[in-house]
Each structure stands twice: as C-alpha cells, then as structure tokens.
Amino acid sequence: MLPSNTFFPQTLLRACALLPLCWLAACGDSSTSESAPEPAPNEPALVEYRLDSEVVNESSGLARSQRRDDVLWTLNDSGGATELYAISSSGQVLATLSIQGALLNLDWEDLASYTQDGKPYLLIGDMGDNGAFRPVLNFYRVEEPELRPGATPQALSATATIYTVAYPNGPRDAESLAVDGEENMAYVLSKRDAQPTLYRFPLASPLPLALPAIMENLGAINIPRAPADYAGNVESYNWTTAMDFDDSLRRAYVGSLVNGYFWDRAEGETWAAAFARPPRSFDLPDYSQIEAGSFARGRRDSLYISSEGTPMPLARLHP
Predict the structure, then answer these.
(1) From 54, 99, 161, 225, which residue has the greatest number of CB atoms within 10 Å?
(2) Is the pLDDT higher at 257 or at 59?
C-alpha cells in the first residue's frame, strides 16, 4: 500500500504511462462444473502456514496456478521488485518470475490468473492509488510459465503485454482484480468509495501506450456496511482488498480487511447483476493485513488467503 502523502514527479507519472506488467489441494478438481464440490471428509475449516522465505514481505496479490493444483503465485506491494513468486500451497518458494517490460512496481496491488483460448495467464494490477492522483494505471499480462522439475527456487523470466487504462470518472484507489477468461475481460473493484464500484476493461489487443483505454463503470456493488456496534474504523469497514472468480465463473470472492464475501451468479447473468445482490459473508483469520485471496484450483468452496508480514502468513480455508 502506497503512503497517501508520497510525492511523484510528473516525469515519473509519464514514465509509468509509457512504460506499463505441505498440503496439496488433494480434493481439487480442474473441471469447471457448475455445482460446488463437497469438501472431503475431515477436511479442516482452516489450515495455516508460513512462507519459508522472507522474499515476500508485503503480499498484496495471490492467484492460483492454472497449471498445477499445488502452486500459487504472489507479489510484493509498492516498491517491491518487478517479480512474481511461485509458492507451493504449503508455503515453499518454488520460483521467481522476472516481468520484462515492467520497469517499476509503483503500487502492485493484486494478481489474477485465468485461462483464455486454452492458454494460462497471469495479470498484474499496478493500480494502487491511495491519494487518487494517478491519471493512468498499468496492468501487465504474462503467460504462466511451466515450473521445471528439480531444485528450487528457480529463476524464470517472461515478457509482459502492457495495458494502460484510466477510470471514466477520475482517479481512485483499487486493490481488487479478477479476470473472466470467457469474456476476456478484467474486472477492478474500487476501494475507498463509500460503496465499492465495479469497473472492467477488455484484454484483447491493447491500445498504443500513449492512448489509454477507458474502463467501463458497472456501478456500485452490494456489500454490508459496518454494524452499529462496530468498534473499529467504520469508514474502512468495507474497503475491499482482494477479488477472484472461481474456475467455473459462477462465484466471486471479495475480501476486506476483516471479512470475506461470496456472490453467486446464475447462468447467463452478468457479474454486475450478481454483485447487486447481498453476499454471503464470513470471517477471515485474524492476520495483520489481509490483502490477497484466491480460490483453490477447481474449487468454489475453498480459498487461499495471504497477509502482509514476514514470514508471510498463508492459509487455506473452507468458509
């Protein structure tokens, strides 16, 4: 999370616009069945791990591998290296993926994985903007690499396709990103609005770097407000910090600093229509700052979440 009083010269802003990105899931099913698979007998509600390395100290994005049930991808927050990290589902660092074309991690805030036309992709959202001053945002897409068998951690590299986009109603902060591979659309959820607002933009051929795409405003989502007896910061109660779609593209997860939420959508329904209904809410583990979450591969009843901190907390839960 970028401090709100951080100053960036205009030259840096222009550069950002022009230089835009153990426990395996034994019951995981790589199919995209519309029905939610049942948890296995004795599958615990919560399993917790710690990353075996300090290379990730501000995990602000988490995405499941589209290739393997037991692999997740994560990244560091603002000021971190322009790298992704492959980790096992039980907390071992497996690989470092250098993102060529992304010269700056201005404020990387989320990470999404998806499959489109049979290819697995990772999309990085450089979209954090606490002070709401960034005229454009950069998103970096790479094809998810295969991890080689053998010693870890591995050093990998991939060249990014860069998407430069802007909001239709002026700059705002966002930390939540998900992709619908069937639509080939990226979805962004604002953070600091009184009600989080859903936006989207296409992942077809990007426009020239000097001509940012304008995101589509899909309207505010239906999310609970702080209860009357809430003892914390009421203003930040429903600030959203993570989003993901399951592999069936029928359930969405959104995480805040304190709660998790599920929205289910019917066949043929839009995501905006699904988000207009009240969600099912559930508690998240009591970690210092949860900013990342992903469905387990092939599951819609099982989540991985990570938190900022060293060593990085990682948990699998069945809400």
Answers:
(1) 99
(2) 59
What φ, ψ does residue 274 adopt, rounded to 5°? -65, -45
Q: 111 CB contacts (<8 Å, ≥6 apart)?
A: 61, 62, 63, 73, 74, 75, 84, 122, 123, 124, 125, 177, 292
Kindly state the helix (H) or strand (E) to which residue 63 belongs, with its residue range.
strand 59-64
Minimal CA–CA distance to 246: which of 73, 89, 29? 29
pLDDT tens digit sequence for 195-218: 999 999 999 988 777 789 999 999
| Helix and strand element counts for the chain (H, E) | 2, 22
**Omega before 20 cis (within 30°)?**
no
Could you report the per-residue pLDDT of 293-318, keeping only the tens digit for each? 999 999 999 999 999 989 999 999 99
* Burial class, 38, CB count within 10 angstroms (exposed 0-12 / middle 13-18 / buried 19+): exposed
HSE (side-chain half, CA atoms, 13 Å) at 226? 15
DSSP 139-187: EEEEEPPPPPSSSSSEEEEEEPEEEEEE-TT----EEEEEEETTTTEEE
CB-side exposure of 9: number of CA atoms within 13 Å? 3
Distance CA 312, CA 54 (A): 7
List strand residue ranges (DSSP E) for 239-283, in order.
240-245, 251-256, 259-264, 280-283
First to last CA, the chain: 27
pTM comes to 0.87
> CB neighbours of 179 closer than 8 A, spacing ≥ 6?
112, 113, 114, 121, 123, 185, 186, 187, 203, 245
Contact 293, 303 (CB under 8 A): yes
